[in-house]
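Re: beginner question about structure tokens

> Can someone show what the tokenized structure looks like for a real chain? I only ever see the sequence side.

Sure, here's an example I had lying around. Input first:
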Amino acid sequence: MNRQELKTLFLQMDLSNVPVKKQIIVNQYNNGGTVEILSDGPNGYSSFKTRQDFPMEYVKTRKEYKSGEYELIIK
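And the corresponding structure tokens:
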């Protein structure tokens, strides 16, 4: 099998049954923390990470958290 055939097979894969993974990961430190918002599924992969002085207050204002679709992980 050559490279072009592999590429064609890869691009024709059925991704409709791929599980969707949505997470909000909060890492808290003594002087603040980081918030990472991940989304992975058939529509693609998305990641956003930011440092905040008050990470939980920031999370509560995000639309992803308010939607209830994302799993909240606090480390």
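Each token stands for a local structural state, so reading them left to right follows the chain. Helices lie at 3-11, 55-61, 63-67.
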